[in-house]
């Protein structure tokens, strides 16, 4: 068999559907899979198409990218505040911008750094939980609600941190943003436990 015929035969393999728990396979793309996690391994199909077929995962990707962009923006803001307040974390940077006397801490810079660190402590777990949660077959409306609530309240948390909004705005935003994460974690554990 020539190489082209071999590739063609591999690409003609039908879509396989793997159901979480049963580990059974079904060659019929119209099989009823009621709320079970479905993984598509279609050789020869663009991975973009496979990914976008899962609407919950596509929704997760959308909000995740927005959150990552927000983290980049906070990093840029932190750098700009350092330059404006002349408070540098490294002596060589201070020397370049006026002298070693600017090798110091500044409360505004530290506030930006805390906001960025808090984002990392919360958004990174969300990226893992949301990705796995998207694969257990959640309702699109419910999944979107989880992702949207987390996104909106993380945005509010950042605004409250950087703009020094009155307490307990920041704390409430933090707590509310944890609710969808806890919900997703519980649902993922329940889905995995039910497959044992």
From TrEMBL:
Give TM segment ranges: 60-78, 123-141, 147-165, 172-193
Cellular component per GO, a single term: perinuclear region of cytoplasm
Principal localisation: cytoplasm
Where found in the cell? Cytoplasm, Perinuclear region; Membrane
For this entry, the protein name equals Prostaglandin E synthase
| Natural source organism | Oncorhynchus mykiss
Which InterPro entries would you find in this protein's record?
Answer: MAPEG-like_dom_sf, Membr-assoc_MAPEG, MGST1-like
Record family assignment:
Belongs to the MAPEG family.
EC number annotated for this UniProt entry: 2.5.1.18, 5.3.99.3
Reactions accelerated catalytically: prostaglandin H2 = prostaglandin E2; (5S)-hydroperoxy-(6E,8Z,11Z,14Z)-eicosatetraenoate + 2 glutathione = (5S)-hydroxy-(6E,8Z,11Z,14Z)-eicosatetraenoate + glutathione disulfide + H2O; prostaglandin G2 = (15S)-15-hydroperoxy-prostaglandin E2; 2-glyceryl-prostaglandin H2 = 2-glyceryl-prostaglandin E2
A Gene Ontology annotation in the biological process aspect, one of them, is: prostaglandin biosynthetic process
Report keywords, A-Z.
Cytoplasm, Fatty acid biosynthesis, Fatty acid metabolism, Isomerase, Lipid biosynthesis, Lipid metabolism, Membrane, Oxidoreductase, Prostaglandin biosynthesis, Prostaglandin metabolism, Transferase, Transmembrane, Transmembrane helix
Q: Does the keyword Transmembrane helix apply?
A: yes
| Pathway in which this enzyme or protein is active | Lipid metabolism; prostaglandin biosynthesis
């Amino acid at each position: 068999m020539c190489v082209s015929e071999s590739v063609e035969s591999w690409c003609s393999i039908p879509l396989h559907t793997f159901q979480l728990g049963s580990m059974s396979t079904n060659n019929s793309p119209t099989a009823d899979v009621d709320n079970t996690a479905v993984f598509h391994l279609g050789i020869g199909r663009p991975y973009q198409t496979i990914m976008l077929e899962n609407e919950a995962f596509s929704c997760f990707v959308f909000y995740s990218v927005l959150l990552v962009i927000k983290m980049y923006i906070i990093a840029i803001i932190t750098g700009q505040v350092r330059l404006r307040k002349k408070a540098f974390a490294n002596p060589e940077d201070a020397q370049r911008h006026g002298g070693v006397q600017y090798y110091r801490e500044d409360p505004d810079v530290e506030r930006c750094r805390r906001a960025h660190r808090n984002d990392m402590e919360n958004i990174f777990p969300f990226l893992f939980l949301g990705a796995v949660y998207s694969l257990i077959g959640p309702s699109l409306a419910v999944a979107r609600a989880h992702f949207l609530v987390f996104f909106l309240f993380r945005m509010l948390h950042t605004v409250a941190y950087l703009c020094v909004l009155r307490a307990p705005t920041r704390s409430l935003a933090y707590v509310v943003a944890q609710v969808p994460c806890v919900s997703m974690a519980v649902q993922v554990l329940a889905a995995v436990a039910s497959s044992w």
